[in-house]
Each structure stands twice: as C-alpha cells, then as structure tokens.
Amino acid sequence: MRRSLLATGLFLAATPNAFSDNLDALRDGLAQLPATVLTQPVGDQAYFVSMEALAGLSESGPTAQTFRRLVRSTALAPLESFARSERNEWESKASVKLDKIRYFIDFGRPPATITLWGLPDADAVGAMMAELQARGFEPAGAEVYGNGEPMKFDPQKCDPADPWRTMTGAAQFAAAKESVVVQANTPADAQTILAEQSSAGDSAAVRTALAGLQMSVADGSVVQAALLSPVFGAATLDPAAVMSPTGDPAETRETMEARLAELGEGIPPYLGGIVADIQMETPAVGIALAYPDCTIAQQAADLIAQKWITMVDDAAHGEISAQTVDGADGNCAATVTIVLAEAGVERNPAFEAVLIPHFNRQVGVLNIGSH
Fold first, then answer.
1. pLDDT computed for residue 94 by the predictor
2. Which of 91, 107, 162, 225 is most buried (most C-beta within 10 Å)?
C-alpha cells in the first residue's frame, strides 16, 4: 500500500535559523575535505557519520544496535573495529574517548581511503596525537606518524579491536589538521590532507546543498550523510567518461545533458548534492541537489517526490515535501524530505532507498534522464 503524502511547490529562502546548529558537524566535516574530493569519478564522494547523533539514538550511547543503522559502517575502519570490541578496549587502542569524537568522514577508494576523526578542537587533536605516540606511533614523514610499514601484511598484528590496524594487520598513519586527526594507509595519503588547498566545503554546489538540507533537518539531527557527485544518478554510464577532469560541476552537467537519451527517464542533471539520514521523532531522509536556477530545481524536486511514490518500498514511504531553497552564487537547491510515520532507531528505510540502488548499480529515484 502506498502511504506517502505529497506537498510540493513551496519556495523558501535559505536564511540562518535556529536549526543551523544541527548541521554544524556535517558542515565542519565537509570544510575539512580537500576540493580534489569533488574530482573523484564516483557517485558518492564522501561518507559522514555523526557520533553525537548516534549517541542520541540510545540512552547508553553508540552501540552495536545503533550501528546497524549505518549503511557503510564497514567502510570506516574505526567503526568496524568498534563493532567488534568492548568500548573500554576500543577507546584505549583508539587513543581517544568515544564521547570526544564529533564525527567521522571518509573518502577515497581502497587502498587510498582516508578517514577524518572530527574532534572538538585543536587541543583535543593534540592530546590524541600525543597518546598515539605514547602507544608506539613514530615519525613517518613531515607531520605524519605511523605504527609500522605502509601496506605490509602482518597477520601477527591483526587486532579486530584496534582502529589503527587494518584487517590484515597493516599499519596506519596519523596526522593532525586543525580539529581533525587524519587516518590513512600511507604517509603520502595523510600528507595530501595537510597541504594548503581549497576546501570541498567552499564549493558553490556543496554550499547550495547544505542550504537545502538545512530545511530538511529542521529540529532533527543528521545521523549519516553522503556527498553526491553530478554522476550519482547515472547508473548506466561510466562515471570517468562523463566527470569533468577538473571537477567542474557545470561542465559535467553539460556532458550529462548531451547523453540524456542513454539514461532513460529521470530528473534533470544536477551539479552535486547531499543525502542525509535524519532522526526526528521518527527517521527521515533529506535530499538536497544543487541546480543553476530554481525553475529547474523545483521541476527536479517535484519529479523526485513523484518517483518516490511509485519506485520505493512501502517501508520507505511517509510524508513528502518538495521545495526549493536559494543557494550559493545564484544556484538553487531542489530539496525533498520524507518523514516516516513509524518510529525506530535501528534502520532508516528512506535513506537506504536512495543509496542502496546506487551501490547495486540500479536505477533509483535520483536517476538522471529525460523528463
């Protein structure tokens, strides 16, 4: 039975409001990502998890039960190890207390994945780095410390409870940058984050998506989120063949428009976006896609809302709103929010309905195409 309620055609200005604090951790995490993340020829360019929001799902803080909600927990080495150990043991080996971690944000593809541990401030980062060195981390290059040789298979050092060892026992490397600790598989990868460079959070597309997402989050909290590239909705195309080599979203969008006939029916090509798992009184999903103007953005929002009713499983249905929000540099966010009727903390079927088809290379509600 289709139970979604649809409200569309709202136009809202993205002005600061009392709900902006609920996006602070996500905004801070995106600000720490290098702009080169936006050039990756993949649909999902970064994955964010709020440890503060996870803690709020259970009276006892983050647990294996609440971790089941995360769609990519195994992609984050720290969370995968936490799920395999007791909290006290994990904190000792992590060199930081769990309640000091605001968020994790992960990007890249194996073996060049990088995870950022978001802490409250630079003092907390300094304390964690000092503790890692006390546990045996040694200099491994300029401002980088490690616990062995990079990429060396060492089964004797395998420790499922240690977030600073891979599943093959290989070493990990750490570096401090402002309010984050960088975790990487090689010193070179860690050093790429330390270099002076522009931030993904400064991108007009990312800022526009955050403006739209702010309306979705309202008084809820973001549990997890994915940063979407312009090719997220092109399941049948090779991302490397259509992504701009410089990461220019407008250039990628033009290429996508030229190939719409290959993609079937769908929404207009977008400049990038964010999809977020939101916890209100019940789970919700917020979708915010950046477009060059609000006419196209409203068309996209309406199409997503209509496709949601016909394409997703009943468990992901709820009250839908489709609206536009003024964004950065004249851009506009197509913003769609689905609030589920049933309470729960272990799963968010609406968030899964956006990401799982992409992981399986199937057509989803954000599929780009003719319309």
1. 97
2. 225
